[in-house]
Amino acid sequence: MTISELIRDGFDLMLVGMGSVFAFLVITVAAVMLMSKLAAWMESLLPQAETRPTSPSGIPADHMAAISAALHTYRSSHRSK
Prior knowledge:
The structure is a single chain. The chain is mostly helical. The protein has one domain (3-46, 55-79). The chain has two helices and no strands. The radius of gyration is 32 Å and the shape is elongated.
């Protein structure tokens, strides 16, 4: 084999390798985009969650009531001792 044949074979091998990597990346990007659209479509099928009223601190009102009741119970049981 002459040097020109070796260079040509190396160039062909490089093109095949780069082409296969490029094809793999294109397929990967297409699959990710498809899965993103599928996930958005599936999310639109789910019922929307109810929003609970929150206090200015961002804690839901029922959580704040439970915390207040727990503090009141704790303080009242520890003051009597």
